[in-house]
Please model this.
Amino acid sequence: MPEIKKTGNYRWTVCALIFFATTINYLDRQVIGILKPLLESDLNIGEVEYGNIVTIFQLFYGFSMLLAGRLIDKFGTKIGYGISVLFWSIAAMGHSLAKGVIGFGFWRGLLGISESGNFPAAIRTIAEWFPKKERALATGIFNSGANVGAIAAPLAVPAIVIAWGWQAAFIITGALGFVWIILWFIFYELPEKKRKLSSGELELIKSDLDEKNESEKPIPWIQLLRYRQTWIFFIGKALTDPIWWFYLFWIPGWLSTVRGAGLDIKSFGLPLIVIYSSTTVGSIGGGWLSSYMIKKGMSAFNARKYTMLITALLVFPVFFAQSSGVSTWGAVALISLAASSHQAWSANIFTTVSDAFPKRAVSSVTGIGGMAGAIGGAFISVFAGHILNFFKKTGHVETGYTIMFTIAACAYILAWIIMNVFAPKVKKVVID
Model:
C-alpha cells in the first residue's frame, strides 16, 4: 500500500488516544448506573433520589460545557484535555467517600464539571488532525469509546464489588485517567509541530481548501449564537442526547426490576454487554456510511443528512421494547438497535460542527450543543425518576418504562424534521 506508506497514519494514533479518553470518560460515569440496585439496598437511595443524583451530574456537565469549550478553544487541546482528565479522575475516585445522597451529589457535580471537557476537546482534535472526508469515521471511532466504557462497566464493576466492595469500583476505574494523561503528554501535539509527521500526511490533513489560512482569533459566544448552524446542532443534541442518558443510567435498573425478575448486580451484566457492544458497530458504521457517501461525490451536508435520517428510522422500533409480547432478549435486541443507531446519529451530528465552523470555533459550538443535550438529559432524569417512582408505588412500574421507550422512539425523527425544516441547506460559516 504505497499511498498509506507515503502519507503515514499518525492521525489514527491521535484518534486512538481520544478513543481511550472517551472510554475512561464513560466508564467513570457508568459505574453508578451499575451500582444502582446496590445503592438502593445499602444506602436507601430510591428512584427519586437516584434521579436527583443523575440530574446534578447532567446540569453541572451541561453548563460546564460552555466554559470547557471556550477554554479549550483558548488554550488548545493538549493542555485543556489533560486538565479535564486529571480533574475527572479525581472526582471519580472521590465517589468512594460518599455516604449518601449529598455525598454522591457533590462528587457527581464535580465529575460533571470536569468531564465536560471531553467532547469539545475531542471534536476539536479531530478537526485539527483529519480532513473532512475522514472526520465522520474518525469521530465514529473515538465516539465508540463511549460504548466500550459502557461495556467495560458491567464486566469490571461487579467483579470489583464482590472482591473489594463498591468503594473500590470508583477508585480503580477513576485511577485509569492518570495512565491516559501520561500517554497524552508523551504522544500528542498539533500536526504542524509534530516533528515525526510525514509531509504527505500533513498535506492530507491540510487538504481542505476552505480551511487553509484560517484565522486563530477567538470568536465570541454571542456571535456564534447568530448562526443557524449553531442552533440546528443545539436542537439536535437537546432532543436526542437525553435518550442516550436514559439508556446509560436507567437500563440497568429496568433489567433488574422489570425484565430480570429481580436480577442482582452479578446477573444482568450480559444483556448490558450485548446492548453496548452493538453501539460500537453503530458508531463506526454511521461514521463510515457518511464518509463513503462523500467519497462517492455527495456533499458533506447531504451525506450527514441522509445518514441521520436512516439512523432516526432505525431507532423507532424501540417503541416495542416494553411490549408484553416481546421477550427479554427480544427487548434487548430492540434497545441494542436503538442505542447503536443513536451512536451512528451522534458520530454524524458531531461532525456537522467541524463541517460548518472554522476550527477556532469547534470546541465552543460543541460545548453549546453539549450543554443543550445535558440539560435535556437532566430533564429526562427528573421525569424518569418521578414517573417510575409513581408507577412503582402502584405496582405497574412497567407502564413508566413504556412511556420512556415511547419518548425514545420518537425523539430522533422529530429532531431530524425540525433540523431540516429550520435549516434545509447548511453552508460553511465564514467569520472574519
